[in-house]
Each structure stands twice: as structure tokens, then as C-alpha cells.
UniProtKB/TrEMBL annotation:
GO terms for cellular component: cytosol. Keywords: DNA-binding, Transcription, Transcription regulation. It comes from Nocardia arthritidis. GO terms for biological process: response to amino acid. It comes from the Bacteria. Coiled coil: none annotated. GO terms for molecular function: sequence-specific DNA binding. Residues 1-62 form the HTH asnC-type domain. This is Winged helix-turn-helix transcriptional regulator.
Length: 152
């Protein structure tokens, strides 16, 4: 990756909806060159996709929480199995596999506290591999999507 690629990535992180022509103009290259650069970055896995940022509250998911989960027994198969199961829960926005005391961090969004309680007690805790969990309700999200700083 060179400086031009870094500049393209920075501009796309700020506004992925800009046209290729606008992106090329902003970095000072031909549109065809810019398009090829973006395609190469995508093929190499640097750019993984383009997404709309959605407000969970606008979809009636006003309560969000972070849930730390421990699974037992510890094995690669159990980690993979729980990871897939957790990602399939409609309440779960993100799944993070961790090192340390807990094995997973789940970011969940639900309609209200009763739904959060139901998810934790009636669905999550009933999975036989779940040895324990701790949840923290998110009162306020101060910062959402931060562009990844690029090294020169």
C-alpha cells in the first residue's frame, strides 16, 4: 500500500457514498486509475465492504448492552460453534472472540429491558456451552464509527 492507497482509504472511510469520479478528483488521479486502485484494495481484502449506518433506536431497539460470555469446555470446536450460534441471534449486532477471563463479547440491541432479560435468561443461558455471562447496559454511545488511522 502506498500513499495514494492510504488517501483513497481515508476518503472512503469518511464517505463511502462518493462517486469514483469524485474520489479520483479529490486524490488527483484519473477515474480509471482510481477505480482500478479501489478494485485492487477490495481484492486484497483491505476494503471489505460498504455499509449503511443504522440507528438501532429507529428500528425499535432502544436498549443496547455488552454481554461477556464464558463457554465450556474450552475447545476450538466449541468456540466456533458458539460463535456461529451467537451471530445467528437476531438480538446480536456484533460478536467478538476474546482472550482472558471471558471468551466472547456480544453487542446486543433489543426493544426494552424485559427483552434483554428474556434474551439473557431464556435464550443465552440455556445454551449448554455457556458457563456464565455478565451484562452491562449501554446508557449512551458517545462515539460510533471511527475511521482507522492509516500509517504513512
Amino acid at each position: 500500500m502506498d500513499e495514494l492507497d492510504s488517501e483513497i482509504i481515508g476518503l472512503l472511510q469518511a464517505d463511502a457514498r462518493q462517486s469514483n469520479r469524485e474520489l479520483a478528483r479529490r486524490v488527483g488521479i484519473a477515474a480509471s486509475t482510481c477505480l482500478e486502485r479501489v478494485r485492487t484494495l477490495t481484492r486484497r481484502g483491505v476494503i471489505r465492504g460498504y455499509h449503511a449506518e443504522i440507528d438501532p433506536a429507529a428500528l425499535n431497539r432502544r436498549v443496547q448492552a455488552m454481554v461477556l460470555v464464558q463457554v465450556r469446555p474450552q475447545s476450538a470446536a466449541m468456540i466456533d460453534s458458539f460463535q456461529q450460534a451467537a451471530a445467528a441471534f437476531r438480538e446480536v449486532l456484533s460478536v467478538f472472540v476474546l482472550s482472558g477471563e471471558h471468551d466472547f463479547l456480544l453487542h446486543v440491541a433489543v426493544q426494552d429491558l424485559d427483552r434483554l432479560h428474556g434474551f439473557l435468561v431464556d435464550r443465552l443461558s440455556k445454551r449448554r456451552e455457556v458457563a456464565g455471562f455478565r451484562s452491562s447496559v449501554i446508557f449512551q454511545q458517545v462515539h460510533d464509527t471511527q475511521p482507522i488511522p492509516l500509517e504513512p
